[in-house]
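Re: the 56-residue chain
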Amino acid sequence: MAEIEVVVAHHERATLRVGDVFLKINADRTRTDVEVEAMAVAPIHARNRHRPGAVV
């Protein structure tokens, strides 16, 4: 099992590191949707697995 490290946590977002993957969990669904849209148009390939409330 991979170790889970809390990178940042506050009332708006928590960022966790699970192995070599960063998981960002937003309190506000709109912020997650904005990030997912931004990653979709990014000129670089980003592994994007979107779940409600989280960007992996």
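The chain has one helix and five strands.
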